[in-house]
């Protein structure tokens, strides 16, 4: 396995300050991607993916691999821990688009009262709340590409640097997308897109049958974000 420094691919036109993302090539061996696809085939059968995969033993073990933890530590510190995993599966048969947005909800171990958090919801018996900027800044997502992401299979699009503006309203997100340069993210099989949750992103529908399966693993600096505020494994 090559060193991360050899795999790192700088974003084109990288600004002097943090752009909120990076692309790492050849992090996961193709055969390991295929094994994960096989292990998860029952969870995503006939659907556009599956959530709450940290309950899946193969995924939980995979998320703790040193090559992934090492990447997460570079972004959130030495205590980096995986807490949530989602599989996205897009193809000609299971096709959808995602409008411009930020990822602002976090799974939480228990409910608490705070003007900074909310509204609250529940999915499959796990509590969720929209989080403030200070909490989301302690999170990073690793999008492991189990298939190559190409121009034809609905790749992610991002607004570089947009995470630095904090949590925005839906209208502010739309306006930012209207005025800002976009970047389409194409990553080879086994590559990883590292991104901040507040980075504004979207994706369009696939234009052909080629699947685009992505394992979206989120890591936190620690499960305890603050006193009385603990992330749930999801």
Task: Summarize the helices and strands and which ones pair or pack.
Layout: H1 4-7, E1 8-9, E2 21-24, H2 30-44, E3 49-50, H3 57-63, H4 66-76, E4 81-90, E5 98-101, E6 105-108, E7 120-123, E8 126-130, H5 133-136, E9 139-145, E10 156-158, H6 170-179, E11 183-184, E12 192-195, E13 201-203, E14 212-220, E15 224-226, E16 229-230
Antiparallel strand pairs: 1-2, 2-12, 3-4, 4-14, 5-13, 6-8, 7-8, 9-12, 9-14, 10-11, 10-13, 15-16
Q: How much strand content do the residues show?
A: 25-35%
Q: What's the main sheet like? A: 7 strands, antiparallel
Q: In which order are the strands of the major sheet placed?
A: 1-2-12-9-14-4-3
Rg over CA atoms: 17 Å
Task: Write the CATH architecture name.
Answer: Sandwich
Walk me through what this model shows.
This protein is of the alpha+beta class. The protein has a single domain, classed as Sandwich (Jelly Rolls). The chain is built from six helices and 16 strands. The protein has helices at 4-7, 30-44, 57-63, 66-76, 133-136, 170-179; strands at residues 8-9, 21-24, 49-50, 81-90, 98-101, 105-108, 120-123, 126-130, 139-145, 156-158, 183-184, 192-195, 201-203, 212-220, 224-226, 229-230. The model is unreliable at 1-16 (pLDDT under 50).
